[in-house]
Amino acid sequence: MVRSIYLSNTAGLRRKNKIKEDIERYSIIRAVSAVERADVVIVVIDATEGVTEQDAKIAGIAHERGKGIIIAVNKWDAIEKDNNTVKQHTEKIRQILSFIPYAEILFISAKSGQRLNKIFELIDVVIENNSMRVATGVLNEIVTEAVAMQQPPTDKGKRLKIYYVTQVSVKPPTFVIFVNDKNLMHFSYTRYLENRIRDTFGFRGTALKFITRERKENE
Predict the structure, then answer these.
(1) Distance CA 174, CA 167 (A)
(2) Sign (positive or negative) of CA dihedral 65, 70, 71, 75
(3) pLDDT tens digits for 112-160?
(4) Domains defined for the chain, CATH in brackets
(5) Which of 101, 99, 105 has the alpha carbon at shortest distance from 72?
(6) What span, in angstroms and rounded, lies between the C-alpha atoms of 69 and 126?
């Protein structure tokens, strides 16, 4: 299948000491608008500078809106390399942009054309993952196995019970977890379940959204 791809460049977000605040505010509005129209956001990082505050802002906007995210590290041809260079740069990017651990990272050079063709391959992968649906039966097999491996948390003698999980939407893939008491669902356990789901289905390049709802055991 041939897919048409429309590329839109966001307005640059600059440091406030370089421009007036009203212009900065307008740039942010334009950037948010561009992100909201997108299926996949490519955050372009200058390899010679590393992740800037402005890069993190764009990544944060994309994450909050559940977009697919690719981090393209440009000017890779300008970096002196050894066997650990890719690993070191990847770890530093992951550390700074820790809120998007699912984002794909690609090292490119717009000047030499290095790996530019890979961007379009990644876009297709991320779009598919951002639109992926998982059957409820299969999903609950994974969750049941995860719960058996690591018991849900307790509070004052009351243990969290997970009745079932179902996917309710895509872009981003959104899951509802039905439990006995949503106050017992700690963020860390939600993250644990997310990691098990990712281990099975991948979901490369896309955020996953989880909603916790209470229900009675006999409902």
Answers:
(1) 6
(2) negative
(3) 999 999 999 999 999 999 999 999 999 999 999 999 999 999 998 899 9
(4) 21-130 (3.40.50.300), 136-214 (3.30.300.20)
(5) 105
(6) 8
